[in-house]
Amino acid sequence: MKIFAIADLHLSMDARIEKPMDIFGSRWQNHAENVANHWNRLVTREDVVILPGDISWGLRQGEAMADLAWIHQLPGRKVITKGNHDLWWTSVSKLNKLFDDITFLQNKCYMAGSVAVCGSRGWVCPGSDGFSAHDKKIYERELIRLGLSLDEAKRQGAEHIVAALHFPPTNDKLQPSGFTALMAEHGVKTCVYGHLHGKDAFKNGLKGRLDGVEYRLVSLDFLEGKPELIYQSEE
Predict the structure, then answer these.
(1) Which of 83, 136, 157, 209 has the greatest count of CB atoms below 10 A from its CB?
(2) Kind and range of the H or E run holding 193
(3) What is the CATH code of the structural domain delimited by 2-232?
(4) What is the domain partition of the chain in residue ranges?
C-alpha cells in the first residue's frame, strides 16, 4: 500500500459553476486532466490518496457532486479534509454516506492498516499579519479538532500517523504553533498541507523536519498536478 497526497483540486465540473483556474498561471491549465493522468498512472486500488481541502468551488452540496463523482471514479481510497473554500461541506455523517471509497475526515482518523490519517482544516496561526480575535477563536477550535483526530489514532493503536491540514501549520515566519506542538506530542511522522499558491507563496510554508515531524507542501500547483508519495508499506 502507498499513501499519496495532493491538495487544492479546485474543481468546477458542475455547469452552474464558472471558475476557470488557468487565469492563475500555466500550472493550472487543464489542471483536472493533468491530475487525472498522473493519478491513474501512479495510484492503484489498494492505495490511499489524501486530499487536504479546497476540493470544489461548489457553494452547495449539489453543486459539488459532479466534482466528488469525478474523484470517486479515480483509483484508490480517498480521504478528504475541509478547506476554506469548501462551502458545500455539510455534516460529516451525511457526506460519508455518499461514496464507499471516499472518507470525509473531521474529529476522527482513517485507519489504513496500521497507519492513521488524521487531520483538520487548520487556520491562520498566531503571528500572522492581521491575526484577529476572530482568527484566534477559529484557530483554537481547529486545534481541538486536530487533537481529537490524533487522540483517536492513539486509541486505534496506530503505528504510524500522517496528519493533513489545509492551512500551513505555522505563520509565514515559520514559527512553531499549537498545531506543530500537537503533532510532535502525538508522534506524527508526516504532515501534509496545501493552501499556498504561486512561487511567492510557496516559500511561506514550512518544509522539512521540526521536532521529529516532516512537513510537506502538497498544493496542486506546487506539485504541478502530480500526487506526492508520502508513505509506502514495507510489505
Answers:
(1) 83
(2) strand 190-193
(3) 3.60.21.10
(4) 2-232
